[in-house]
Design brief:
Layout: H1 73-101, E1 162-163, H2 176-180, H3 186-198, E2 203-210, E3 216-223, H4 227-238, E4 254-256, E5 270-276, E6 283-292, E7 295-304, H5 309-323
Antiparallel strand pairs: 1-2, 2-3, 3-7, 4-5, 5-6, 6-7
């Protein structure tokens, strides 16, 4: 006996899907709808299988909100922590860099250097020039004339040094006899004295001091009428390449100071630096002649045993800067 199937009338209107369900109170929510198609037997040819009804929400029952993809809060917190750490490190780094630029080299760990023997000089400033007077090497002519007071061009003594009163002279001007007394031999004193007369020295200013370590320093400035006169006297009479022409007291023979840094030379100033040749006497003497326009400078340092090189070089360079 075969089962008879009544064909579906395709012409009648589709029945409202919601009419097949009457809302009923439930103690448990309906299972979530699935998108998987229900397994049905294949329909006979010519028949249409209606789609499965969709369960409506129950009246009076709270609805579950749609499922949202939650962000991982652990990842968010990690990102925030790293961002904050980066800002802090950047701020600390900037502060440290600024702090280092404001510190002295000896205050920075790892960059501190041992004392190399340099003296603590006061701030070096050039004296004011008379109104309308150029500097010795300013302008196109570069006459080399120092218009400033010669006494104001002397290098000041370093901190802790004791001044040498014997070099103060009369109102700051030293006599030719006092200057010549530094030369060891009488014949040299007479020769150099005659040259000062022949070349018409105008003024002599001097300053000296003794530092706590026993180093004695003397600086002499001799001013002439023109730069040409001073240059000739310094380069051809008082100094030469190999050593000083006339021995100072305590330095019978001298030789060129080969260890004086060439990088410290100053334009427009000719420098002749010497050191006493071995064997030394009771003390070592270092000396330098500077030809700076219309002025000749003589810097002398002596110390019992060995005269340190660094303060001598420092003194010569600073005096050169004042005359430039």
């Amino acid at each position: 006996m075969t089962e008879q199937t009544t064909p579906v009338d395709d012409t009648r209107p589709a029945e409202d899907a919601t009419s097949a369900f009457v809302p009923q109170p439930r103690s448990e929510p309906l299972p979530p709808a699935t998108t998987e198609p229900a397994t049905t037997e294949p329909a006979a040819p010519g028949f249409v299988v209606p789609p499965p009804p969709v369960a409506p929400p129950l009246v009076g029952e709270p609805q579950e909100p749609p499922v949202k993809v939650k962000k991982d809060r652990r990842v968010l917190r990690a990102v925030l922590r790293w961002t904050a750490a980066t800002v802090v490190f950047a701020a600390v780094g900037a502060s440290a860099a600024y702090g280092i630029t404001r510190m002295e080299r000896t205050d920075v760990p790892g960059l501190a250097t041992e004392d190399d023997g340099r003296w603590d000089y006061p701030a070096i400033t050039k004296p004011p020039l008379p109104s309308g007077s150029p500097g010795p090497f300013a302008g196109a002519d570069k006459s080399g004339v120092h218009s400033a007071d010669l006494r104001a061009l002397l290098l000041p003594a370093p901190k802790g040094a004791k001044a040498d009163a014997s070099l103060r002279g009369d109102d700051g001007w030293l006599s030719s006899k006092a200057f010549l007394s530094q030369y060891a031999e009488k014949v040299d004193r007479e020769t150099v004295g005659q040259m000062l007369t022949d070349y018409a020295v105008r003024h002599i200013a001097a300053r000296g001091w003794t530092t706590p370590d026993g180093t004695r320093t003397r600086i002499y400035l001799l001013q002439f009428d023109t730069a040409a006169v001073a240059e000739e006297l310094a380069s051809t009479k008082l100094a030469n390449y190999g050593g000083a022409q006339y021995a100072l007291t305590g330095a019978a023979t001298t030789e060129r100071d080969e260890h004086f840094p060439a990088a410290s030379e100053i334009d427009d100033i000719t420098r002749f630096a010497y050191t006493e040749s071995k064997p030394y006497g009771p003390e070592q003497v270092r000396e330098a002649y500077l030809s700076a326009g219309d002025t000749i400078a003589l810097v002398v340092q002596s110390h019992k045993g060995t005269a340190p090189a660094v303060p001598f070089q420092q003194t010569v360079v600073l005096q050169s800067q004042l005359l430039d």
